Amino acid sequence: MRLVNIRPGRQTRFYLLALPFLLVAIAYFAGSSARLAQNPNDKLLPALPSMVQAVKQMAFEVDPRTGSYLMASDTVASLGRLGSALAISTVAALILGIVIGLLPGANALLGPFVSVTSMVPPLALLPILFIVMGLGENSKIALIVIGTLPCMIRDLAMKVQELPREQIVKAQTLGASTWQIALRVAMPQTLPRLIDVLRLQLGPAWLFLIAAEAIASDSGLGYRIFLVRRYLAMDVIIPYVAWITLLAFLIDVGLRVLQRRLFPWFASVRAE
Amino acid sequence: MSAIRFDDVWKEYGDHIVLERITMEVEPRAFIALVGPSGCGKTTLLRMLLGEEQPSRGQILVDGKPLLGEPDADRGVVFQRYSVFPHLTVLQNVLLGRELRDAKFSARLFGAARRAAMDNAMELLAEVGLAGQESKYPSALSGGMQQRLALAQAIMREPKILLLDEPFGALDPGIRADIHLLMKRLWNETHLTVVMVTHDLSEAFGLATRVIALERQRNRPEERERYGATVSRDLEIFPRRSAELRSAVQPAPIGTTRSDQEHQPGRPGALVLKEHP
Q1: Is residue A238 part of a domain?
Q2: Which of B135, B165, B164, B152 is nearest to B255 (CA)?
Q3: Which of A170, A176, A177 is opposite residue B83, by nearest beta carbon?
């Protein structure tokens, strides 16, 4: 049988799915135990028990200096920044995306501008943001917004333009004004696509968050990683990276479920 | 119910002449079928009627007034595809026209107004044979049902002219015959002037009161760009067909039921029985 025709069953699929994760884990712990056998004080590839110990300390014991659970407060700080930045981006992208996608005039006015600004490397703007907005929360949120918004607007405007022309004409023959077309035709059909666009921008958003926290911050997951880096504390860094990955994954899954629940009609539209 | 007049209409794209010297009168309540080989500008003519495109020369008059330059609620339309909104259920699709008309800002109806509109919509859906499908999304409907829905949606808004762009072209023959009966009935019961583009001649002669063929008069390669298609045949159907004027229906708004009419839920079968007793 040709490879293109071989479809794994449910069970095989599960094993296949688990395999790469398992291989990475095996490689890590093999390397770790090999290094630790040579030098028990090696910090580069800590063993599982020392990572568990570190997580216990970070997550479940009150930090004597700040009086809080560090991992929890870091997570809250990071997710707060990420959430507020993505909320701003999402709302702005929805409005501007629909305006640009629906109105040829707005497209002529803003389309090229958005395309150009989406090419600006956001991290290059970080110093400017720090200078203008200070080192507080605003500059970090602004970085994420600047990093994600232009791409989101551009993608979303494109999605709106991809709506069949027939639908826009049909709405007009039902007497719809521009506002009504935006409200009843364009927006409801843009929302599920907005979730797609948001999911694509989650990666960049985390990147900018960690970068901003690494450079100037006093809390947050990125801050913590770059802080303990000075002590080569891999036993903290690795669990933190895993935790960030898990958070990002869960947000992505959550968005996908949300899309399926809220827009049951969308799957068949996308399949077309 | 509107009279349409084409007054020496031309359509050119740059140097390319698509339609030329289109002059004709369409009487109120006519059912016009536009036929012709593909690429002869049938759809272009329909799009000009719709207001999506403007004639390069000449003008189109509806009831003596020049046509608006953009689509409006006087002219309903059903396309071959994408005529209904995929994000709205069957009922919501039909309600939409009423909501757009009555709620300028929110485009949604609430309370008593919504209930009244819903009653109308349900009756209309029953009439086109979609009773029981109200809460489905269009993607769950077959092609024929989607076109029935598109018809109901267009008619709910009570247009004067209904434009059909190969609406039944993608349907199976059996389903097409069913929907032809429905189309005939809708035309009889409403006050529509219908213009239908089709490439199916039997459909054209089966439904229309008048069949208009568009054709290029000159077809040599070097002439093709410089001579557009024009009306080559203008055939009145014989024996003459005209819309019935049922008194019970005449003043009533669309979607009101007639007590004398017997429904067969789910199918426009009542009509079959009536036509072939």
Answers
A1: yes
A2: B152
A3: A170
